[in-house]
Amino acid sequence: MNVYDQIRQLLDAQGVVYALHRHEPVRTVAEVEEKLPLLLDRMLKTIAFRLRDGRYVLAGLRGHDRLSYPLLARALAVNRRDVTSLSPEAVAAELGFEVGGVGPFALREDVLVLFDGRLTNMGTVYCGSGLSTATLAVDFADLQRVTAGQVVELAA
Questions:
Q1: pTM for the complete prediction?
Q2: Burial (CB count <10 Å: 0-12, 13-18, 19+), residue 79
Q3: Which of the 8 DSSP states describes residue 2?
Q4: Which tens digits make up the pLDDT trace of 41-79?
Q5: Which strand (E) or helix (H) includes residue 146?
Q6: DSSP string covering 89-144, please?
Q7: In sequence order, which residues have a C-beta less than 8 Å from that of residue 81 and are 6 or more positions away?
Q8: Alpha carbon distance 126, 70 (integer Å)
Q9: Helix %, strand %, coil % for the chain, to 5?
Q10: Which positions of the chain have pLDDT values less than 50?
Q11: Do 119 and 37 contact (CB within 8 A), yes or no?
Q12: Lateral strand order in the sheet of 150-152
């Protein structure tokens, strides 16, 4: 079963109400801004990392916010040098997300989910579904609940 199907199955099993928006492929925030500007104000981007101990981290932030590596390391209680960002190819190969479709879903036990605190009052957010051609619209509170994501300070 691919990541997209696993995410939908998880949301359905947890009774989460969501909408799926199909669109042309997007890979970056800049492409979302150009091709899907209506989604941008509520976009939740997810950045993938690998920790030195082999675990993965999916960090969710608002679309235009920049991640602070020191804050990420502090939230994980690790040294900054223990955190490596994953290339798009590694995200696809190791976690199964299409480039442009990464969402904050820990579908394996070795994946942690963190959310920046600036997301908590956004209501509905648009996030990756596993595919670069489909975006999920979901209430942030439901997303946090179903992902067991920890809210911390991540944005620079």
A1: 0.93
A2: exposed
A3: -
A4: 889 999 999 999 999 999 999 988 999 999 999 999 999
A5: helix 140-147
A6: HHIIIII-PPTT---S---STTEEEEEEGGGTT--EEEEE-SSTTEEEEEEHHHHH
A7: 52
A8: 26
A9: 35, 30, 35
A10: none
A11: no
A12: 83-85, 44-51, 56-62, 111-116, 150-152
Residue 71 to residue 77: CA distance in whole angstroms: 10
Give the chain's mean pLDDT: 93
Q: Which residue has the tokens 């051609």?
A: 133
First to last CA, the chain: 36
Q: Report CA dihedral (144, 148, 152, 154) to the nearest 10 degrees.
A: -80
Number of C-beta neighbours around residue 121 at 10 A: 8
Q: Count, in order, helices (H) and strands (E) of the chain.
A: 6, 8
Structure tokens at 48: 């993938």
User: Domains (ranges, CATH) in the chain?
Assistant: 3-152 (3.90.960.10)
Cα 145 off chain centre by: 14
- Residues linked to residue 49 through DSSP beta bridges, in sequence order: 57, 85
- 147, containing H or E segment: helix 140-147
